[in-house]
Design brief:
Strand order of the largest sheet: 6-7-8-3-9-10
Number of helices: 7
Distance between the termini: 29 Å
Helix content: 25-40%
Strand content: 25-35%
Number of strands: 10
Structural class: alpha/beta
CATH architecture of the largest domain: 3-Layer(aba) Sandwich
Shape: globular
CATH class of the largest domain: Alpha Beta
Order of helices and strands: EEEHEEHEHHHEHEHEE
Radius of gyration: 17 Å
């Protein structure tokens, strides 16, 4: 991957829900390939809304979003799924499928991409073990704890080595030691060229890294906080 390539560019982006006030105001953001950013800010500052814009599940009220060199507004709906497949997402509510096992949930992006189980089984099981879920590989989400669901969701997001990884409070349900281990997983993925954005309140996680920090306050984005 070309490290100088811009993965995401937002220009003067604003977002409001309905007729309410703007939750995001004049957001200007550039994410280069291989960069790693923490996104912080108080509850209600708009972190999740910004991640949803980056995942293309929301449209801005105004402004430009350019993703992988394409103006998002001009991408035909039929091509949008192919763009989203280049993005891995860790949601706060996990979004695991209850009728699939841990292994099957983690492998789902590979199945959607057309791979057969014999192609990916070894890689998925390695990742299942790495996130500490080997004994729960055949368990279904309803019997998993919040922390176990969180780890499964993270593994599912990174299994395809996406071009862009967005994580919303990925360490909110795990202990500090596991949080740092998961940070190492994100760091290793970043070394392979993935652009990473982690929204977090975890100051310990930020202190234990040298990555850039962006802060959202009152809907406005600030850098170097």
């Amino acid at each position: 991957m070309n490290e100088n390539k811009t993965v995401v560019r937002l220009e003067n982006v604003g977002l409001r829900y309905g007729r309410g006030h703007e939750v995001l105001k004049d957001i200007n953001l550039q994410l280069d390939a291989g960069s790693f950013q923490f996104l912080t800010g108080p509850s209600g500052a708009g972190k999740t809304s910004l991640l949803r814009l980056l995942f293309l599940s929301l449209k801005p009220t105004r402004g430009l979003i350019n993703m992988f060199g394409q103006d998002v507004a001009s991408i035909p709906p039929a091509k949008m799924p192919f763009i989203r497949r280049r993005i891995g997402v860790v949601f706060q509510d996990f979004r695991l499928l209850d009728h699939l096992t841990t292994f099957q949930n983690i492998a789902l992006p590979l199945r959607v991409a057309g791979q057969k189980e014999k192609q990916y089984r070894s890689d998925v099981m390695d990742l299942v073990s790495w996130v500490g879920l080997k004994d729960h590989a055949n368990a279904y989400p309803p019997v998993l704890s919040g922390g176990e669901k969180q780890r499964a969701a993270i593994a599912r997001a990174v299994i395809t080595q996406p071009d862009l990884l967005l994580a919303d409070e990925p360490t909110g349900n795990v202990d500090p030691d596991l949080a740092l281990r998961l940070l190492r997983l994100f760091a290793e993925l970043n070394k392979l060229g993935t652009t990473v954005v982690i929204a977090t309140h975890d100051t310990n996680l930020i202190r234990n890294s040298d990555y850039n920090v962006m802060e959202l306050a009152n809907g406005e984005l600030e850098y170097g906080c």
